[in-house]
Amino acid sequence: MGLSTIDRRTFGWSRRAAAIDLAVIAAAILILYAHPGAGWIERTYSGRWYPAIEHALAPFAAAVPFAVGDLLAIPLLAITAWAIVRVVRARNRGARLFAGLGVILRLAAVGAIVAVWFRAAWALNYERIPLATKLDFQTGRITAAELERLTTRVAYGLNLTYTAAHATPERSGPELATTIEPSFREVIARLGNAGPFAGSPPKATVFNPYLASTAITGYTNPFTYEVVLERHLSAFERPFVLAHEWGHLAGFASETAANFIAALTCTRSPDPAVRYSGWLGISFYLPAGEAARLPIDAGVAADIAAIRRGYAERIDRRLFALQWQSYGNYLKANGVANGTASYGAFVDLLVGSAFDERGLPKRRALAGG
Ligand SMILES: [Zn+2]
Question: Which of 94, 96, 126, 350 would suit a FRET pair with 147, their CA atoms being 20 to 30 Å apart?
Answer without folding.
Answer: 126
